[in-house]
What we know:
alpha/beta; 10 strands
Amino acid sequence: MNHFADRLIDAVRRKKTPLCVGLDPRWDSLPESIRRRHGDSLQGKAYAYEEFCIRALDIVAPLVAVVKPQSAFFEACGPAGTSALLQVMRRARRYGLVTVLDAKRNDIASTAEAYAEAAFHVFDADALTVNPYLGRDSIEPFLKVGRALGRGLFVLVRTSNRGGGQFQELSCNNQPLYQQVSAAVKQWSHEQLGTHGYGDVGAVVGATHSQELAAIRQQLPGVLFLVPGFGAQGAMAEDTANAFDVSGLGAIVNSSRAILFPSDATGMDWEAAVENAARSAIRELATKTAAGKLAGT
Amino acid sequence: MNHFADRLIDAVRRKKTPLCVGLDPRWDSLPESIRRRHGDSLQGKAYAYEEFCIRALDIVAPLVAVVKPQSAFFEACGPAGTSALLQVMRRARRYGLVTVLDAKRNDIASTAEAYAEAAFHVFDADALTVNPYLGRDSIEPFLKVGRALGRGLFVLVRTSNRGGGQFQELSCNNQPLYQQVSAAVKQWSHEQLGTHGYGDVGAVVGATHSQELAAIRQQLPGVLFLVPGFGAQGAMAEDTANAFDVSGLGAIVNSSRAILFPSDATGMDWEAAVENAARSAIRELATKTAAGKLAGT
């Protein structure tokens, strides 16, 4: 079975871009036509999210290697939302996309294993985001289930929100907490390196802290980065530059709202606007970061 | 609308016990008759979890005030599991039980709001467990949605697992990280105190660290504690004693496996064994902690 990092890197090389499209179906931002067709009952919202995300996948699948569905929006629709998420994950897989299920799960022992089963067996995700606060033995059950299937994890290290520093920047034994977490991520990741030299445990590091991104990249060779914050959260393509290795690999850069709901879409139908926004984000990353080298290989 | 902490404390006083029954339906531990009836497909497991938890609720509802369904096990059954969890939550509510949905959610902004909507609108939980790693602005959306409905949060502070100290015990500005988190919990909690003097943001503090429990109790007057670790995880009733205030209030003590799947159930049918285990846990807490005073009032 293929190592997660190898699959991801091969897919990024094929598509020649590190852009990851976040599938965050916010009700208020959906195209009016889709909202009207399904209505705003929980079931209706779930159908609307499914239709919207699947049509968005149809557009971005030829352009990018990775998508990141956000579990929260689907969960807010109850059981119908869970079914919708399942359909979206299946469609992404049918397109051969690498899927990162963004669910930030965390628990211990058999409970953590149950979350891992949900992510890797039920939703068949290639990778899952997890929260490290509970420590090593809360990550191990995810690794146990995931590694048996060649799947990966992205551990929250330094998040992109304004208040993310409240705990993550606290000085712990003369290092900010996030560096203590990233040291642990390095250990977990290096337990199982793929043929491209990257491990199956990655780090979530926000693009809104560009200097820290550079420091963490330095600290974590061989660790894949999932970089949120690009686009609607305010980071520019150049702010993500420090996430890449010299070959333009080692990181995927997520954008959700700026691609699904672009603000400069006047006169376009929504699908043209999504394609336009995705192409523009890909171009930005290619010109402002080492990811530009991917296009040359 | 009633304040969460007032509702919880009134319910605990009525039932005269701080015991919280954790609904963790582990497939391998379920009664053979229930497993056979439904089979081990995802759908079958979901039906089995629903039947088991609802029959367990029928037994414990007259005895305790609070139950804590564990989302992970239901999620591992896919959409059918989400429906099962919904039915279990409904039954608990119909019994007038206070429900703590254990899902350890965490995210930022509208994504965190979506999780809060799932917990408080869809599943109609009285409280939700959340993970603090992302900081203040990751807690606020949960508070915004929850407070409008009189619901509460339990923030992970010091967890009961062996490796919980890896980050939680790191010395940050001369205090262990968990004390930095508990200081934040105190602030959030004291923003909105109920008439019994407790806030609507509680703390998860494991019973497996009895001395720390005492220190955190000292640090957090007016903050409700959710104490896991009692029973199968190895803590005794007396280890939870430090969680209570002088009136025997201020804490709920969770036990899951030791009640649902008691080991000393020879010769009893499983329902008699569950009732027996619940009564014995209630007795233990009453004799070994200040919660005994509840029976006298």
